[in-house]
């Protein structure tokens, strides 16, 4: 059997340090503690059980681990635990994991090291069999798991029969002719949530109804994520009913329905797993709540644990199942009503706004949220999407009074602003934006500045932010990875601060370079279009002090700084799966979220998609930090009013509505970024999208993606033209076999010709 000395030797620390890690007597560096815990896991070290059990006989403290306190279900369980424990003379010590597997493990370790009498756990990682076997089963710690069954371990367990309740809900709805039924739950690796899905599917199957996966949405069980799920569920067709697995999520669902003008209990049936309460004021209007006696479950698990503490070796493990009282009642569901089409769908006689756009996450968010505006103002909003970004640019400049249909609003990339404004494609909306009814001062300054040209406002910001670095935090904090990296590079494994450091980490996490790498590749680079590749190049140019032209509009492509920047990105390409020319932004996000790569560089526009994948695809949690080199690009999309629009007053009202406080919250929940300041001060939203904390700091270091400054003799140059030449440098290197120096010389000549064409003196 492994000893304390063995653990110390494996971790490369002293015996005293191992003791401190186990007892919590002194603060130990996180890196050191991780190495010690890794050694304990690998060696299967078990503390002196006899000494521990001797102490336990006099211990009267119970450790309780819950996901959070915001869910009424958890709160009622905790009340029951507290009540029963006090009656039995025990005190409880409560810790919250907030959905973090790492945090939960640390809390359990702390309770074990304090020698608590027993544990009550509602786990966010029931699949972590190795940890629970090593910490609960081997040490024979009296424990009761609640709601979520741990995998592959024989323990006490208590839960409600969620299968029976959701089956009952679904069967009753089907009997009343509610055919399109949506289900919104937590992740299905959690036994309680998987049971909801099984009950739903079995009821459909027995009734001969098909299962449609688009009606099932998985969330992280917050009201914000449930709001997003409900908006997506209703995107194409509003279901006849929605079943939710918690009241917390149902609050988000209710809000999503409300802003779309859909009334629960009238236009749609909403049923939720809820808690027993005599007070109807606790219930959401129009929502059918079930009656789980969570308080009773709490008293029962506490009683079971205390009995197990008294006889830790002889008491048989028990499985307690509680039935939801609602299954013994008759559901008063009305017969399904035939409803009229909701707002936002074209109908004769209504005013309309027509919007031309490119498909980005923010346009999908605005389509969903704008249903509220459609209902409030009795207006149809018609969206026309163009698949190619340069086709969008061309369509905007071709739009005019002779075309039918004519667009009222254009969604355009921020770098196009000066060109579109200078050539009078956009209406001046300064009086609207600077008027008393507009929320201008609450828009982030950097986003508002991107809407002005020659001191006149020509747009409002739809999305805006900077680029950031996202990385697999679980891998970066793994003790074995930290040790191996430091042994090889002589520096600690951390989020990279320079592009050289970025490349070293990318090499370390590329399996062809490191056979022990847990990921196939270190990173991905997108460059299927110039609009995707140019940002990858520019952030490295700026970090090395390079540029395409100087403050006097003199072309400076062929410089040592630019040469170094291209050498840096060419090094990065050794650690990617595909050529950047064959890789899109969507693909680099999928690579990261599926666990294929360890690092991702992208803008906040796409970060919301990372959040959607964390609880299903991404293994572990995601870390976030400032871009290496501290030279991110300011990115974003604006909405401008066409000078030819016949609905300018209505468009002005739409712009005012989009920049309201409530709208900004809805847009941020759906998209993971905001151009207004409010969401950056909301703790709930920052918990959902924690990387928003660094966005405002990133603005301090960001560079604008714009063309050269216009002179008296020159015309305004759209940034896409010089960016095309910058991308040609990369093409000449990779496709034509040119050296970096040679390709930059060619780029210098092409850029000078472009500047002459636009009237810039050379």
UniProtKB/TrEMBL annotation:
<dbReference type="InterPro" id="IPR001761">
    <property type="entry name" value="Peripla_BP/Lac1_sug-bd_dom"/>
</dbReference>
<feature type="domain" description="HTH lacI-type">
    <location>
        <begin position="2"/>
        <end position="56"/>
    </location>
</feature>
<dbReference type="InterPro" id="IPR010982">
    <property type="entry name" value="Lambda_DNA-bd_dom_sf"/>
</dbReference>
<dbReference type="Pfam" id="PF00356">
    <property type="entry name" value="LacI"/>
</dbReference>
<keyword id="KW-0804">Transcription</keyword>
<dbReference type="InterPro" id="IPR006059">
    <property type="entry name" value="SBP"/>
</dbReference>
<keyword id="KW-0805">Transcription regulation</keyword>
<keyword id="KW-0238">DNA-binding</keyword>
<dbReference type="InterPro" id="IPR028082">
    <property type="entry name" value="Peripla_BP_I"/>
</dbReference>
<dbReference type="Pfam" id="PF01547">
    <property type="entry name" value="SBP_bac_1"/>
</dbReference>
<protein>
    <submittedName>
        <fullName>Extracellular solute-binding protein</fullName>
    </submittedName>
</protein>
<dbReference type="Pfam" id="PF00532">
    <property type="entry name" value="Peripla_BP_1"/>
</dbReference>
<dbReference type="InterPro" id="IPR000843">
    <property type="entry name" value="HTH_LacI"/>
</dbReference>
């Amino acid at each position: 059997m492994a000893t304390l000395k063995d653990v110390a030797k494996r971790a490369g620390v002293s015996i005293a340090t191992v003791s401190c890690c186990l007892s919590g007597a002194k603060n130990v560096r996180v890196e050191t503690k991780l190495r010690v815990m890794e050694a304990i896991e690998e060696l299967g070290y078990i503390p002196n059980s006899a000494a521990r059990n001797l102490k336990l006989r006099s211990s009267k403290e119970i450790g309780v681990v819950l996901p959070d306190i915001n869910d009424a279900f958890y709160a009622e369980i905790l009340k029951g635990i507290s009540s029963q424990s006090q009656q039995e003379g025990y005190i409880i010590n409560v810790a919250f994991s907030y959905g973090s597997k790492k945090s939960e493990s640390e809390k359990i370790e702390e309770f074990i090291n304090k020698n608590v009498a027993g544990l009550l756990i509602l786990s966010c990682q029931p699949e972590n069999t190795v940890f629970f076997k090593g910490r609960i089963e081997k040490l024979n710690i009296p424990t009761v798991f609640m709601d979520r069954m741990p995998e592959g371990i024989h323990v006490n367990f208590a839960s409600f029969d969620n299968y029976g309740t959701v089956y009952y809900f679904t069967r009753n709805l089907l009997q009343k002719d509610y055919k399109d039924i949506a289900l919104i739950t937590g992740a299905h690796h959690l036994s309680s949530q998987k049971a909801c899905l099984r009950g739903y599917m079995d009821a459909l199957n027995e009734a001969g109804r098909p299962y449609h996966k688009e009606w099932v949405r998985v969330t992280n069980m917050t009201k914000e994520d449930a709001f997003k799920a409900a908006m997506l569920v209703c995107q194409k067709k509003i279901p006849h009913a929605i079943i939710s697995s918690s009241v917390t999520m149902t609050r988000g669902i209710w809000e999503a329905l409300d802003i779309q003008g859909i009334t629960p209990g009238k236009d749609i049936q909403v049923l939720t797993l809820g808690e027993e309460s005599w007070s109807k004021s606790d219930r959401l209007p129009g929502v059918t709540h079930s009656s789980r006696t969570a308080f009773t479950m709490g008293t029962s698990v506490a009683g079971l644990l205390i009995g197990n503490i008294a006889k830790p070796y002889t008491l048989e493990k028990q499985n307690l199942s509680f039935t939801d009282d609602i299954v013994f009642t008759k559901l008063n569901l009305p017969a399904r009503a035939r409803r009229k089409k909701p707002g936002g769908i074209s109908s004769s006689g209504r005013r309309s706004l027509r919007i031309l756009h490119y498909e980005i996450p923010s346009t999908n968010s605005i389509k969903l949220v704008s249903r509220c505006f459609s209902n409030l103002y009795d207006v149809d909003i018609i969206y026309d999407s163009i698949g190619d970004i340069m086709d969008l640019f061309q369509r905007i400049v071709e739009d005019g009074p002779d075309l039918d249909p004519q667009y009222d609003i254009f969604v355009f990339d921020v770098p196009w602003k000066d060109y579109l404004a200078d050539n009078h494609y956009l209406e001046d909306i300064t009086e609207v934006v600077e008027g008393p009814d507009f929320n201008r001062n609450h828009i982030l300054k950097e986003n508002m500045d991107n809407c002005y040209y020659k001191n006149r406002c020509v747009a409002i910001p739809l999305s805006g932010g900077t680029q950031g670095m996202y990385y697999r935090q679980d891998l970066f904090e793994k003790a074995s990875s930290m040790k191996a990296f430091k042994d090889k590079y002589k520096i600690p494994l951390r989020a990279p601060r320079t592009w050289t450091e970025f490349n070293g980490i990318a090499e370390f996490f590329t399996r062809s370079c490191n056979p022990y790498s847990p990921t196939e590749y270190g990173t991905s680079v997108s460059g299927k279009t110039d609009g995707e590749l140019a940002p990858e190049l520019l952030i490295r140019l700026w970090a090395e002090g390079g540029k395409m032209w100087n403050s006097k509009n003199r072309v400076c492509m062929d410089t040592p700084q630019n040469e170094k920047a291209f050498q840096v990105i060419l090094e990065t390409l050794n650690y990617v799966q595909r050529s950047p020319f064959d890789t899109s932004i969507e693909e680099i996000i999928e690579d990261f979220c599926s666990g294929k790569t360890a690092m991702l560089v992208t803008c906040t526009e796409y970060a919301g998609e990372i959040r959607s994948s964390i609880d299903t695809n991404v293994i572990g949690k995601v870390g976030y930090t400032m871009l290496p080199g501290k030279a991110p690009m300011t990115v974003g999309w604006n909405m401008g009013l066409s000078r030819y629009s016949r609905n300018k007053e209505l468009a002005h009202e739409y712009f005012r509505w989009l920049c309201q406080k409530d709208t900004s919250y809805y847009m941020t929940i759906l998209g993971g970024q905001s151009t207004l300041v409010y969401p950056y001060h909301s703790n709930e939203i920052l918990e959902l999208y924690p990387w928003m904390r660094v966005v405002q700091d990133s603005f301090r270091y960001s560079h604008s993606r714009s063309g050269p400054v216009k002179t008296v003799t020159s015309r305004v140059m759209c940034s896409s033209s010089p960016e095309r030449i910058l991308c040609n440098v990369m093409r000449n290197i990779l496709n034509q076999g040119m050296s970096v120096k040679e390709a930059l010389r060619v780029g210098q000549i092409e850029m000078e010709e472009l500047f002459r064409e636009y009237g810039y003196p050379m």
